[in-house]
Design goal:
By secondary structure, the chain is mostly helical. 76% of the residues lie in helices and 3% in strands. The protein has one domain. Strands 1-2 form a two-stranded antiparallel ribbon. A two-stranded antiparallel ribbon has the order 3-4. The two termini are 37 Å apart.
Length: 509
């Protein structure tokens, strides 16, 4: 710990002034260097397929949606029939302290939720409504419900094929079920290749979308509520970033146990505050709720260009849901693999609560607040992340005048929780490639903390776009693996449910 802290401070001493002193130059250079790289990767990952009505949809979205729908039907609507059991498991009714693992079911859930509940729940919903209108909310809910089934499959596999190390620590996730699961089917080389592709994309995503994008949005929101151009941090965002980096460093040094101890307190708190504020707004505008719900449902099936408009609204809703809950991306299975259980299915069932909480509950409440307060844009033009947060802030602020300040705290907490979870995801991908040695882990953690500072100080669009592209690149090897390994999960599910029903799997509380 002392060595890591000294190394971090030494590097920060040299790099932070350089970043802060030449921000615009660094932005220009990074954008210039990254633009062709990002453009190429984005064209590959987000290449579009014509679907009629003059509309195109990124294939990555089709890949995620079809996978989620398939897993829902293939596993007999586990997203619905497993919901009640998921609540029992996460409440500890089946916890056995003797089971292998590092964290409880609840801690694994909050650690994974902290990686998905983030700025996207605040800004992403506003963007969805600005582009697709209120009807996009309906399709976000639908996508969230189907996404529960993808989460179930990937997190079950995460536990089933995890490595439990000699010191009790756990390494799991797509890297392991792709390599080990495919090896069982006589496709070891192919599985290993997919695992490495996933790991590389996960590392890139952890530095970009899971780190720099989060701290950048938090920095901008904090500066906005402390005076904007008059703020003491205006033009000095690196100071905020340095503070966030130190907080992140202290938390992630202890690994998943340390992360879980933070997330199992921060996630319920921040989600509770946000939902409470939304309920206050909806209570004040109670008479407007029926009209808002009617508008959301009606506009979900209509559009300015008939079929084309409807497809556009649906695509945008699904797209934002995918950004928000990451079902099919594979990241959450890394956190869930650390759960204390000898029954992989039990943790898979717990994980299906994530898209429900993230998308069906939080995103829907955000959308309702925007619609009932009359803040939904009347034209369909995509807005930036900062403007999107501002729109949501104004919607809450129209009823709760002081809420923009609370929202700033929420954005910071959302960003912080996302960063610490993604640090764990990236670390496990890093050690899969470079080994589980302490020096390897320390190198990644130092780099990750430095990227926190860099992300707060720059506004290099290409860097952030690259990070987002890497996160979605993870879904290609992951969903392919889920499709091939899904039959064994269906068999395991049938066995587990029968043993729960018979009482063979006992309650411990």
């Amino acid at each position: 710990m002392n060595k890591l802290s000294r190394a971090l401070l030494t590097l920060a001493t040299f790099l932070i002034p350089a970043v802060a002193g030449a921000q615009s130059t660094i932005d220009d250079k990074l954008n210039s260097v990254m633009e062709p790289v990002t453009k190429f990767i984005s064209n590959v990952i987000f290449f579009k397929v014509p679907i009629g009505g003059g509309k195109e949809v990124p294939f990555v979205l089709i890949w995620l949606i079809l996978g989620a729908v398939y897993f829902t039907f293939f596993n007999g609507f586990i997203n619905i029939r497993g919901f009640r059991h998921a609540l029992d498991v996460v409440r500890g009714k089946f916890d056995n302290p003797k089971d292998k693992g590092e964290v409880s079911h609840f801690q694994a859930l909050t650690a994974a939720l902290s990686g998905t509940v983030g700025v996207g729940n605040i800004a992403g919903v506003a963007v969805a409504i600005s582009v697709g209108g209120p009807g996009a909310t309906f399709w976000m809910i639908v996508a969230g419900l189907f996404g529960m089934s993808s989460k179930f499959v990937e997190c079950t596999l995460g536990v089933k094929y995890r490595n439990v190390n000699a010191d009790g620590t756990v390494s799991g996730g797509p890297m392991y079920y792709l390599s080990k699961g495919f090896a069982n089917k006589g496709m070891a080389g192919f599985g290993k290749a997919l695992a490495i592709v996933f790991a590389i994309a996960c590392i890139g995503g952890s530095f970009g979308g899971g780190n720099m994008v989060q701290v950048n949005q938090a920095t901008n929101q904090f500066i906005a509520v402390t005076g904007g151009e008059e703020s003491f941090l205006y033009g000095q965002g690196w100071i905020f970033g340095a503070l966030m980096a130190l907080i992140v460093a202290v938390i992630i040094i202890g690994g998943i146990k340390s992360i879980a101890k933070v997330t199992d307190k921060v996630v319920p708190f921040m989600v509770g505050i946000y939902i409470l504020a939304a309920l206050v707004v909806l209570a004040v505008r109670f008479t407007d709720i029926p009209e808002a719900l009617g508008l959301i449902f009606k506009s979900a099936f209509t559009g300015t260009a008939a079929f084309g408009g409807f497809i556009g609204v649906m695509i945008n809703g699904f797209k934002r849901a995918a950004f928000s809950n990451e079902a099919g991306i594979g990241s959450a299975s890394i956190a869930h693999s650390a759960a204390k259980t000898d029954e992989p299915i039990s943790e898979g069932i717990v994980s299906l609560l994530e898209p429900f909480i993230d998308t069906v509950v939080i995103c829907t409440m955000t959308a309702l607040v925007i619609v009932v307060t009359g803040m939904a844009p009347t034209t369909t033009t995509e807005i930036s992340g900062d403007a999107a947060i501002g729109l949501t802030s104004s919607a809450f602020g129209s009823v709760i005048s002081w809420f923009p300040y609370v929202l700033s705290v929420a954005v910071i907490l959302f960003a912080l929780s996302t960063m610490i979870s993604w640090s764990y995801y990236g670390l496990k991908a890093w050690t899969y490639i470079f080994g589980e040695k302490k020096s390897s882990s320390a190198t990644y953690k130092i780099l990750y903390c430095l990227f926190v500072v860099v992300g707060s100080a720059i506004s290099a669009k290409q860097v952030f776009d690259f990070g987002d592209a890497m996160i979605f690149a993870m879904c290609f090897p992951n969903v392919l693996g889920l499709l091939i390994l899904a039959p064994e999960i269906r068999k395991d599910l049938a066995s587990y449910m029968s043993r729960v029903k018979s009482g063979e799997i006992k309650r411990f509380s």
